[in-house]
């Protein structure tokens, strides 16, 4: 039997949650202050996800890089792969906030979008 401590980010309270498990099966969750906390802890233990943020290169832009983020969450275990892939991407200026940089980022089905405008040089 093992335990994992998780700080919930489901609401501003930041409850310290303890997930008790045997093998990979959850046997108990305690410390959550609301239903969101229980759900968050269960998901974080079984299949954690994150929004990926980074930058990609810009050709002929006023800035050399444009900040980007995924339009949804990607599996946490893919973050390094996402970082490597973002280093391979180059876009041409101009770039506008919300422009889709990649339709299916790293095969996740999630879009990678620009989060700032970059004008041409």
Automatic annotation (TrEMBL):
Organism superkingdom: Bacteria
Q: What is this protein called?
A: DUF1667 domain-containing protein
Originating organism: Anaerobutyricum soehngenii
Kindly list the organism's lineage. Answer: Bacteria, Bacillati, Bacillota, Clostridia, Lachnospirales
């Amino acid at each position: 039997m093992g335990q994992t401590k998780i700080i919930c980010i489901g609401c501003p309270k930041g409850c310290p949650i303890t997930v008790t498990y045997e093998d990979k099966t959850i046997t108990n969750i305690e410390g959550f202050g609301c239903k969101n906390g229980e759900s968050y802890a269960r998901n974080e233990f079984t299949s954690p996800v994150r929004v990926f943020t980074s930058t990609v290169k810009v050709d002929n832009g006023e800035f050399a890089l444009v900040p980007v983020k995924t339009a949804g969450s990607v599996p946490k275990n893919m973050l390094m792969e996402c970082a490597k892939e973002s280093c391979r991407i180059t876009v041409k200026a101009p770039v506008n906030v919300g422009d889709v940089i990649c339709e299916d980022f790293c095969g996740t089905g999630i879009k990678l979008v620009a989060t700032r405008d970059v004008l041409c040089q």
